[in-house]
Each structure stands twice: as structure tokens, then as C-alpha cells.
Design goal:
221 residues, alpha/beta, 6-stranded parallel sheet, two-stranded antiparallel sheet, 9 helices, 33% helix
């Protein structure tokens, strides 16, 4: 299969491709979570939910494989170094009590995926203590065992956890595609810069395209 993408067409085999949904968590997307505690307008991130829902629904209908990631830490914060926790001056830090429970702590309400994209029983859910989805998760080994070669990305934020995960994936040999209307940043200029970096120099990290082009590609042999 192939699709029109930037910087050139993206080719993939459906049987060895997986949809990756990065950190679509209440703590980042809903008011009262970690994203807002950093002073951000979380409505920017929630604006991509309709496009993400369309892709997720269509992917499920086609019987595709899906992995969701959550940025999540142990309750004792043993996997959250000070170099990560003590950054800036947020109203709430990782592990603090917030309106949706302790911020970015596994099992807390705010750490869960937003209801609109709630994982189904047969979909993978990976808790990651870092920005990238491969760090300390065992995901690479699971993907290899499943015969996955290509990854289609959605999620937040574009310049942090999405880009980090794509770069990690590229280093491990996966072909990566990012859906432009299914990812967002609190800073529009950061999103644009990241899209440019990902597809620069002949798809240095990967490809980008709209979700519409992806769905249309299913008609291409």
C-alpha cells in the first residue's frame, strides 16, 4: 500500500503496520491537569480529538493493531528523577495532588486516556516513564515479536513525546508516519517546526500527511 505524503510517497504493508497513539491523557488534554498547571491552553490539544477519533474508529473497523502510550510514574516516584520533576515553576508537579488525582501517576484518573479514545481490551497500553515510548518499556521487543515494521503516529505533544518516540523508532528501524491533523502542541510554532524537522532531508525521521490521505490510501494496492 502507498499514500501521498511529505516529502514523498509513504509505502507500507497493512499486516505489519501499527497505529501508535501517544499520551492522549486527561492530565495533558483536560482542564485541571498537568498541561494546564504549566500555564498552557489545553484547548489546543483537545481540538484534535475529532480527527483522532475518526482514524481510530476506521482503524478498528479494518481490524488494525493499536498501541496507546501513557506518560505514567510509580506512586513512589522512583522512576521520575529530579532532573525531570523539578523543571520550571508549574502550579502542580508530577506526583502532586490535583483535581484528577496525583499528577501523571499510574492508576490515577488524570493519567488515564481521555474517554473519546479509550483503549479497547485487545489494544496495547504502554506506561512510559520518559518522553520516548521505548525507554524502559520493553515495547521494541513486543513490536518485533508481532512482526511490526511501520508505525503511524497520532498524539501529543508534537515536539516532545511524539517526536522523541518517532526518533527512537527510526533508530530501531521502523518506518514512521505522523498524521498532521492528529497531533498538536501547546505552541503552534513548535508543532510546525517539528513537522519540518521530521520530514527534512528526505524523511530523515519519517513522513507526514493528513489523516484523510491515510484513509484514502486503503484503496491503493
Amino acid at each position: 500500500m502507498w499514500l501521498v505524503a511529505d516529502p514523498f510517497e509513504f509505502r507500507y504493508e497493512w499486516s505489519s503496520t501499527m497505529l501508535v497513539i501517544i499520551d492522549m491523557q486527561r492530565d495533558f488534554i483536560e482542564p485541571g491537569g498537568f498541561g494546564q498547571s504549566l500555564g498552557n491552553d489545553v484547548s489546543r490539544l483537545s481540538s484534535i480529538l475529532p480527527a483522532c477519533q475518526r482514524v481510530l474508529s476506521a482503524w478498528r473497523e479494518r481490524g488494525g493493531r493499536i498501541v496507546h502510550t501513557r506518560e505514567a510514574h510509580r506512586p513512589d516516584l522512583s522512576d521520575c528523577p529530579d532532573a525531570k520533576r523539578n523543571r520550571g515553576q508549574p502550579a502542580l508537579r508530577i506526583g502532586d495532588d490535583g483535581p484528577m488525582g496525583r499528577i501523571l501517576i499510574s492508576g490515577q484518573p488524570g493519567c488515564e486516556i481521555v474517554p473519546a479514545l479509550m483503549p479497547q481490551a485487545d489494544e496495547w497500553v504502554i506506561d512510559k516513564p520518559g518522553k520516548g515510548m521505548f525507554y524502559n518499556t520493553g515495547l521494541h521487543e513486543r513490536l518485533q515479536a508481532a512482526g511490526v515494521k511501520s508505525l503511524v503516529f497520532m498524539g501529543v505533544t508534537t515536539e516532545v513525546c511524539v517526536q522523541t518516540s518517532m526518533r527512537e523508532a527510526n533508530d530501531r528501524g521502523y518506518e514512521c508516519l505522523l498524521l498532521e491533523d492528529c497531533t498538536e502542541s501547546y505552541f503552534p510554532e513548535f508543532k510546525q517546526a517539528t513537522l519540518d524537522m521530521i520530514r527534512a532531508q528526505g524523511a530523515l525521521v519519517g513522513w507526514t500527511c493528513s489523516s484523510q490521505l491515510l484513509l484514502q490510501s486503503w484503496d491503493n494496492p
